[in-house]
Amino acid sequence: MDEISELRATQAITKLSFRYVRGVDRADGDALESAFTPDAVIDYGFMKVPVAAMAGAMRRGVESPTVVSHHLIGNVEVIFRRSACHGASDV
Questions:
Q1: Quick one: DSSP state of residue 6?
Q2: Per-10-residue mean pLDDT, the chain, length 91
Q3: Domain boundaries, the chain
Q4: For 56, what's the count of Cα atoms within 13 Å in the CB-facing half-sphere?
Q5: What is the DSSP string of 44-90?
Q6: Alpha carbon of 74 to those of 17, 23, 45, 67: distances in Å?
Q7: Fewest CB atoms less than 10 Å from the CB: which of 17, 26, 30, 35?
């Protein structure tokens, strides 16, 4: 992959990270789902949750919100290997 393509992919992955935390902070299930493929599973380290289940829980929680959430993104890293890449960031 050439350098320009890597920069574009890195920016796209970074934007997905932003969309994810915005969805979580706003309890916006649609925004959360839009940051993942439909079959994705979110791995929080201590639990794994299908995106659809997490988005559904957020939608139900909007009816009676009890938690305020604020996330910051840092240390975005994207590693390119042949035809695939892996992105990680600290939230």
A1: H
A2: 88 90 87 92 89 87 64 84 79 73
A3: 3-90
A4: 6
A5: -SS-EEEHHHHHHHHHHHTTS---------EEEEEEEETTEEEEEEE
A6: 10, 17, 18, 22
A7: 30
